[in-house]
Write a structure and sequence with these properties.
Order of helices and strands: EHHEHHEEEHEHEHHHEHEHEHEEEEE
Oligomer: single chain
Radius of gyration: 21 Å
Number of helices: 12
Low-confidence stretches: 375-380
Length: about 375
């Protein structure tokens, strides 16, 4: 397809999608009133409108199944770890800043739907207080900027936050989580000041990481690849995080193609996330054990550089890796725990093919305790 070099035009109402019939627009009215809709003409142009099951359409266009009652607005209990509005401190070495309550497009499976609803009070407003807190935590080496989308901020505002972080000596890595390269790569291509900011603050010893969010190979357009290349040339390290989404990428061939193409452009596959049980997400969720099989099948189709990813869920208690299935058991491990004593802890449960989240596993595996402590090969 031909990609326009102009800035995409926002599409903020379902009624603006010309390819939808009047009947479809009417049916989706209640959904878009409950859960915000936003896209642009660039991303919508990636949809094959002749295919009712098109994966890009499913990712961005509302679906009546979102009205099914299921899940919670805060499925990972982020408020438990909130120090001040917009600042979360869950893991000892990492702080998360919600710097934006705007996205170029709103994914239908978003686990932070609440950010786009109500009074929008969860994002960072008091930057000086956030910096004061981070400066008081010398063990913190990583700060993750998220939202919303940090690249939806005007570059001077983003540069101010990044610049302040670079003044804190113990902050080594700044991560910027963004779906902008997929939704609107021209935000990057046409903004040299953004690339200048990265050149200034991504140094040899303290890199900026751009955590991209490509979920389907069709999103890797020529413009998207150019945007990634420009970020890399400016000194950023790029890595990709993709949730496993029913009807979008729940196919080993699709996942493998995504992993391959990401590895070809140096945007290393990093995490595949279990879809979080947020309100409205039931239809987008693949059960954990089915998801494990899909990811493992995809990994057999790619080279080593493309299969370094981990399949994880971001549970309230930590980031849990899905390790394997065997003889009616499922094996999980705390890749990173909110409680440092749980880091590396193995969890062994009786298989439950319908489980979509850790909380769905109720029975410990026969002859196994529910949790097994991590054993180090080094001295006690």
């Amino acid at each position: 397809m031909t990609i326009s070099s102009n800035q995409p035009k926002p599409v903020t109402q379902v009624d603006q999608i010309e390819q939808l019939s009047d009947m479809e627009k009417s049916a989706l009215g209640d959904v878009s009133r409950r859960f915000a809709f936003r896209s642009n003409d660039y991303y919508l142009s990636l949809i094959d409108w002749q295919d009712p099951n098109d994966p890009i359409r499913r990712a961005i266009v509302p679906d009546v199944q979102e009205m099914d009652e299921w899940g919670r607005l805060d499925p990972s209990d982020e408020r438990t770890y909130t120090i001040l509005p917009g600042l979360e401190h869950k893991y000892s070495y990492t702080i998360l800043l919600l710097v934006s309550d705007v996205c170029e497009g709103i994914c239908r499976y978003c686990f932070r739907k609440r950010v786009f609803m109500g009074s929008r009070t969860e994002c960072l407003r008091d930057v000086p207080s956030a910096m004061e807190y981070i400066a008081s935590q010398p063990q913190v080496t990583n700060v993750l900027l998220t939202g919303g989308d940090p690249l939806a901020l005007a570059t001077p505002k983003l540069a101010d936050i990044v610049g302040r972080l670079r003044e804190i000596e113990h902050v080594q890595i700044i991560r910027i989580g963004s779906r902008m390269p997929a939704f609107n790569p021209y935000r990057i291509i046409h903004d040299p000041s953004l690339l200048d900011m990265i050149r200034r603050h991504s140094t040899r010893h303290k890199r900026i990481y751009i955590m991209t969010h490509f979920i389907h190979p069709r999103e890797l357009t020529d413009a998207a690849v150019e945007a990634i290349s420009l970020l890399q040339e400016a000194g950023a390290i790029t890595a990709n995080q993709a949730p496993l989404i029913r009807g979008v990428n729940d196919d080993p061939q699709v996942l493998a193609e995504l992993f391959r193409r990401l590895s070809f452009i140096g945007d290393a596959p990093y995490y595949v996330f279990q879809c979080r049980p947020a309100v409205g997400n039931r239809a987008y969720t693949v059960p954990i054990e089915e998801g494990y099989a899909l990811v493992e099948q995809a990994k057999t189709l790619v080279s080593g550089l493309a299969k370094r990813l981990r399949y994880v869920m971001s549970h309230s208690t930590g980031k849990i890796e899905i390790l394997g299935l065997d003889a009616g058991r499922v094996y999980l491990k705390y890749h990173r725990a909110a409680n440092d004593q749980d880091n590396g802890r193995l969890l062994v449960f009786k298989s439950n093919p319908n489980a979509c989240w850790l909380d769905d596993y109720e029975e410990e595996a026969p002859e196994y305790p529910m949790t097994l402590p991590y054993r180090s090969s080094g001295p006690d």
